[in-house]
Amino acid sequence: MITVTIWHNIARDADGTSTAMLNGHQPGDPMVRVFTYQADPAGGPEAVAEDAFGIFNGHPRCASDGDLARAYYERELRSLSKGDVVVIGEVALAVASAGWTPVSGSLNEARADEHGTHPLPAVGPGTAPGDETVPGDHRHGHRAVRAHRARRALRRRCHPRAARSSLPGCGCEPEAVAYYQRGPPPGRLPLHLRCGRD
Length: 198
Fold this sequence. Notes:
The protein is 27% helix and 16% strand. It is of the alpha+beta class. It has a six-stranded mixed sheet with strand order 5-4-3-1-2-6, with helices on one face. It is globular. The model is unreliable at 129-143, 162-169 and 187-198 (pLDDT under 50).
């Protein structure tokens, strides 16, 4: 098995328009490491990259690929697009208009969190690439994903700057998280989350 890592290209011009879709991957483009998994290296790097492109554009070839696609989209990641990079072991290939472009040198890692692009946790001492576990990863399951989303939505509603500050929670998170972990009762619409401070 070989480690495959998906990187999103977040390069922008002065107007804030994505340049990756027009120019493809350019040296120095800011790249966000968003997903990693293990794959069979049979067929070589380009075959693995082709499989990754199909999986992360919603066209898995088999059930195990479907599980990877589900885990990828549970992390609320956008589809793999021109300018993004797939790293297979030590080989980096950028998505081109047709096929793949080899990437030489190292990637310019960025830690941006934006719509459709959410970085994996930083690799620290004692962890290797591929060991990361994040909410939405297929190892956590759907209930943990719902609970993570409930906490995030409630935290933003109660404390709009909570993601960037150390404000304490309002105390209504456990109830909302428990509700989303077990799901709505059959035939009922999802609960409208209300903060106790409303």
